[in-house]
Amino acid sequence: MGMFTKNYPEEIAHRIPPGQRLVKTWPVLHYGPIPKFDGTNWPLELSGLVENPMTLTYHQLRELPNVKIDADMHCVTGWSTLDNTWEGVSFRTLKELCKPSAEARWVIAHCEYGYTSNLSLQAMDDDDVLVAWRNGGQDLSDEHGWPLRLVVPKRYAWKSAKWLTGLEFAAKNTRGFWEVRGYHIHAEPFGEERYAHQEGARAELEP
Known about the structure:
This protein has helices at residues 10-13, 58-63, 91-98, 121-124, and strands at 21-22, 44-48, 54-56, 67-74, 79-90, 106-111, 116-120, 130-135, 138-139, 149-151, 164-170. By secondary structure, the protein is mostly beta strands. The two termini are 19 Å apart.
């Protein structure tokens, strides 16, 4: 697989996955137009194989217990940024509210304009996964996902879907926007899980 693109100091080299390079800026990458938020009308739907399906208004979401997560970010296109500080609501808090059934093994993130992304429930249930509205002490800009984006730090950044509107719990995997276009289901950066042809027997299994 890929190699480090340059030599980094030992204290950070172990944090940079193969094939990645550090950048000082935060590149903007997305498909489709940037939605507008009027400050009130942005509900988050928790649906699928759950005991308590619900739709949270944006105000209700912001009133839930908040978390602050420090995490690195790695894009499949090859750039990485370190020490990002995210603020929002832990995925585990949302999971406790809606109570997924024992059959739920996957989570489909639904976003504005019909965009979707998918991950195993096991991957989503990590302690650093959250839905976020702030980065680096500032509200997210429109192009970086305001008013809400999913953040899954241990996966390539396309899994941290912008303009999040819902989380659907499912028994079977449904490939998202980039996954049907040839990208990896699990997307673990240190394993360089970039493309679907690398999945093999893991295609329908949790990591």
